[in-house]
């Protein structure tokens, strides 16, 4: 018979006490051993006997209390003297020994049996804890796609790898949160480096500040930029245009329509008709008969915006026959404010990626080009991780533009052949800027929420995953955040942010909220379906660290340094492009 692991026969000096209270997910243990009590650290692990001799309950210490007890009034205190030490433990899962088809011990998150009153409780410390962590890590690594964000934060075994189940991490969506400077960008970069190494990796990282440019040096990562003002005349291969004809009807109206205008309903109706007419003419000219029979106003069909504007301008000046000669038509003058507003949007070079399009972007084949750049999975010749830099997109329409990109990816994935569909992940950096609480969302943000909300609820069916990254979890849309069943929480100090994270955790993970403010830089608590054990880990340092270090103000002010190139700064401001060159203007 195979000898049971040492974890099933811990040494007596590891015993902390006996169970005195049990409820649905909590166990209370009483002890009078002062020496052992001092070793019972909050958030440490324990192992408890159960009625099944081949199973042990694994728990996390949530609270340690010492109080005076009167044996005459408290039956639980009898036999323990006048001082009662009480340890509250949250049940985490079950450790099963060999047998029943198992060749070795395994850990499962299911709490299959709770200990009986009087059951023994042992501390998991030192080599025992290292052995248990190694067993959990080995179990995670046996899954189809293991990944690691770092090592377990254990003093005795600092190099024990903290493996996660890569399938569960992306299948069930994930959330990375932490205050500014806590190490979120490192966590994202380290994760993307591992994803990029997979043979058929497929992920898109939304980079709002251009900080992940160093990651593009990875041989299996490519970087695109939403075209800025400097790209309109001579766009490079990395410049992406998102043509206006990709915008849905409501998105276009949110961009160009002033809802306070008394003529707004007429303007919306006339614009929709003009767009339909322009799309029909474009499909007819291209000989796309099947598409002509099925298209709608929201279909991604290229059309000439000039044609739609000309039709509206004609309505604005239209005369109709009257009794005594021509009279003003029903829409005469109704677009006097709409047309200049639309023209101002079209002439704004910051919106050139929408309106100042190269001729190729007005072709029906441009959608194929976008799909190829954004959606194609990695191979030996092609990078699978794509960074999309949105840093030059105006902040007032940033939510809409990111929402447009997410909706395009989801629609392409949804309409792809199921037999050849490749899963794809969207990494949403600074998500609170475009996935806010709906009560605080403006029109553009509300439009961005719709595609992300649908991806959060239905993405798993179509192989689209979300990794939401934010420094303000309290400001995230709860409908999206609640669908993230894996949480990587770095240091959080604000009470509202800690509460927001705790609401996403299972009931038996209580107490982790208080731990978040005590984490060091580069430390995180990982909880969720991908992590068999709620774990405190030290993040690994990425090989291609993002350009997001905290500025050391006092040190910078204390030493002589090169003068800031303000001439280049002014030039960049005027040209609305972030030049990295050190050359003089």
Notable characteristics:
single chain, alpha/beta, Elongation Factor Tu (Ef-tu), domain 3, Rossmann fold, 3 domains, twelve-stranded mixed sheet, six-stranded antiparallel beta barrel, 21 strands, disordered N terminus, nucleotide-binding
Task: Explain how this protein is built.
There is one protein chain. The chain has 585 residues and is α/β, with parallel strands linked by helices. The protein folds into three domains: 6-124, Elongation Factor Tu (Ef-tu), domain 3 (Beta Barrel); 162-243 and 357-544 and 552-567, P-loop containing nucleotide triphosphate hydrolases (Rossmann fold, 3-Layer(aba) Sandwich), CATH 3.40.50.300; 249-343, no CATH class. 31% of the residues lie in helices and 22% in strands. The chain contains 18 helices and 21 strands. It has helices spanning 34-38, 126-141, 166-171, 184-196, 249-256, 264-286, 289-294, 305-316, 338-347, 352-355, 366-375, 398-414, 443-462, 478-481, 495-502, 512-515, 553-558, 566-575, and strands at residues 15-22, 26-31, 45-49, 55-68, 83-96, 106-108, 120-123, 146-152, 161-165, 174-177, 203-207, 221-226, 239-240, 319-322, 325-328, 385-389, 424-428, 464-470, 486-489, 523-528, 531-539. Strands 9-8-21-20-19-10-18-17-11-16-12-13 form a twelve-stranded mixed β-sheet. Strand 20 (523-528) and strand 21 (531-539) form a beta hairpin. Helix 12 (398-414) packs parallel to helix 13. The chain starts with 14 loop residues before the first strand and ends in a 10-residue tail after the last helix. The model is unreliable at 1-5, 77-81 and 581-585 (pLDDT under 50). Residues 155-334 form the Helicase HerA central domain. This is ATP-binding protein. Keywords: ATP-binding, Nucleotide-binding. InterPro entries: HerA-like (IPR008571), HerA_central (IPR002789), P-loop_NTPase (IPR027417). GO terms for molecular function: ATP binding.
